[in-house]
């Protein structure tokens, strides 16, 4: 659905923000895009949306080059940025103006999400709280029915019930021909939602793999002391949280936060454990 070939980007000379990024995003999947502050996640999302143009390399999305921003492409992609401004109009007026840009827009679905998110429908958008406005934009993005949906920190500002509502609607709206890419630091908000993980660190792609591959290869457990065969371990209030090889084919819940930290601190151990089917950037160099 989206192929990213060796792209690099810099806002300023000699200060790379993305370097030699190679990725494939497939339809029917929800991707979690993780990375430290400044790793380049937003810039990658903007590149996919055609809002910034790679200095080298190519992106092909739905057969289009995003940077050309052709109307056919724009009708099939929606980007929910972290910060945004909504006009001082009612949701109804907002739809009258914006929905025609998306030929598959489903009005009924939009109002259904608005109800599920408990957003007052007659209120001027400008008078809503940040979290409420974010939910309006999420409802709009899902109702566009675009094949690609990009979200930058979508759960930022959402209250606890809305976060679980968000997971529910996202899972329901994913179809075989749609692809959702979510950049976030709130990994717990993505629990049981994402099925693919992409990790960026310091301008590079560290890892792109499926959650299934992670759970088949690794186990996540809590111990009283650090196990001798731990690939990575850290002390927590509940004990020593550790990642080990899944030699007994156990089914444990992936601790994404622990996994992310392990990749930053002991990348070689984790990547070589996953290496069988995993793509990492070194394979492209
Ligand atoms: N408009 C801009 N002009 C110049 N530099 C920028 C601009 N936007 C981002 N950068 C720089 O590019 C780098 C990557 O930023 P980006 O926003 O893509 O990272 P991120 O991974 O999304 O970070 P965060 O998790 O903090 O949101 C940072 O060093 C940032 O300072």
Automatic annotation (TrEMBL):
<dbReference type="Pfam" id="PF00005">
    <property type="entry name" value="ABC_tran"/>
</dbReference>
<dbReference type="InterPro" id="IPR051782">
    <property type="entry name" value="ABC_Transporter_VariousFunc"/>
</dbReference>
<dbReference type="GO" id="GO:0005524">
    <property type="term" value="F:ATP binding"/>
</dbReference>
<dbReference type="InterPro" id="IPR027417">
    <property type="entry name" value="P-loop_NTPase"/>
</dbReference>
<keyword id="KW-0067">ATP-binding</keyword>
<protein>
    <submittedName>
        <fullName>ABC transporter ATP-binding protein</fullName>
    </submittedName>
</protein>
<dbReference type="InterPro" id="IPR003593">
    <property type="entry name" value="AAA+_ATPase"/>
</dbReference>
<keyword id="KW-0813">Transport</keyword>
<feature type="domain" description="ABC transporter">
    <location>
        <begin position="2"/>
        <end position="227"/>
    </location>
</feature>
<keyword id="KW-0547">Nucleotide-binding</keyword>
<dbReference type="InterPro" id="IPR003439">
    <property type="entry name" value="ABC_transporter-like_ATP-bd"/>
</dbReference>
């Amino acid at each position: 659905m989206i192929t990213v070939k060796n792209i690099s980007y810099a806002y300023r000379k000699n200060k790379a923000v993305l370097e030699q990024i190679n990725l494939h995003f497939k339809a029917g999947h929800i991707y979690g895009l993780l990375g430290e502050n400044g790793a380049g996640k937003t810039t990658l999302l903007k590149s996919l949306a055609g809002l910034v143009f790679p200095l080298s390399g190519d992106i092909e999305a739905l057969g289009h080059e995003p940077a050309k921003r052709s109307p056919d492409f724009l009708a099939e992609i929606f980007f929910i940025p972290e910060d945004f401004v909504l006009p001082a109009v009612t949701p109804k007026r907002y739809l009258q103006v914006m929905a025609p840009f998306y030929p598959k827009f489903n009005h009924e679905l939009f109002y259904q999400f608005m109800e599920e998110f408990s957003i007052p429908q007659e209120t001027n958008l400008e008078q809503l709280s940040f979290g409420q406005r974010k939910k309006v934009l999420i409802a709009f993005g899902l109702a566009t029915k675009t094949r690609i949906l990009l979200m930058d920190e979508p759960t930022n500002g959402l209250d606890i019930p809305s976060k679980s509502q968000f997971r529910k609607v996202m899972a329901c709206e994913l179809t075989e021909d749609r692809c959702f890419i979510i950049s976030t630091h709130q990994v717990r908000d993505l629990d049981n939602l994402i099925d693919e993980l992409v990790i960026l660190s310091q301008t590079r792609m560290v890892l792109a793999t499926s959650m299934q591959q992670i759970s088949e290869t690794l186990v996540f457990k809590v111990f009283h002391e650090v196990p001798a065969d731990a690939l990575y371990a850290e002390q927590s209030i509940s004990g020593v949280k550790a990642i080990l090889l899944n030699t007994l084919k156990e089914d444990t819940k992936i601790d994404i936060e622990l996994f992310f930290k392990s990749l930053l601190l002991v990348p070689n151990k984790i990547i070589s454990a996953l290496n069988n089917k995993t793509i990492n950037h070194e394979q492209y160099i």
